[in-house]
């Protein structure tokens, strides 16, 4: 009876050893999978970081060019000359030119119709001609 008990304990311990070996192999497979996944993600993130660093340097160059064109402080702290549209309270020159040109055209049309005493049909033709130019 003692011999059978010892044999059953030995059998139980062998099964326990076999089960622990299976768990160890499973844990090693999981570890290998996790390591491979980590390497893949690390590689992908390294590539993304390199691209981001490249984009950042390109954007810094563009920002430097833009700030120099606007006459603001550059990245290194120096002040450059130029037109600052954000700080200006008046309209930029190109907007002033467009407004003056369009107002002169309107004044020319108005004054012509009033001075020469054009009929209603002739006035309508003047406006139609102006509208067709915009299209």
UniProtKB/TrEMBL annotation:
Keyword Oxidoreductase belongs to the record: no
Keyword annotations: Coiled coil
UniProt-listed PANTHER family: MYOSIN PHOSPHATASE RHO-INTERACTING PROTEIN (PTHR17271:SF9), PLECKSTRIN HOMOLOGY PH DOMAIN-CONTAINING PROTEIN (PTHR17271)
Phosphoprotein as UniProt keyword: no
InterPro entries hit by this protein: Actin_Cytoskeleton_Reg
Coiled coil: 3-30
Protein name: Myosin phosphatase Rho-interacting protein
GO molecular function: actin filament binding
A GO CC term attached to the entry: actin cytoskeleton
Superkingdom of the organism of origin: Eukaryota
């Amino acid at each position: 009876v003692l011999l059978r008990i010892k044999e059953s304990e030995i059998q139980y311990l062998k099964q326990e050893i076999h089960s622990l070996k299976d768990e160890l192999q499973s844990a090693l497979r999981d570890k290998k999978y996790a390591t491979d996944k980590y390497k893949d993600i690390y590689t992908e993130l390294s590539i993304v970081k390199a691209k981001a660093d490249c984009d950042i340097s390109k954007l810094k160059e563009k920002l430097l060019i833009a700030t120099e064109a606007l006459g603001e402080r550059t990245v290194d702290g120096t002040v450059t000359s130029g037109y600052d549209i954000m700080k200006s309270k008046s309209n930029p020159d190109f907007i002033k030119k467009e407004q003056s040109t369009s107002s002169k055209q309107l004044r020319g049309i108005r004054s012509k119709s009033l001075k020469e005493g054009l009929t209603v049909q002739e006035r309508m033709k003047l406006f139609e001609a102006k509208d067709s130019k915009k299209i």
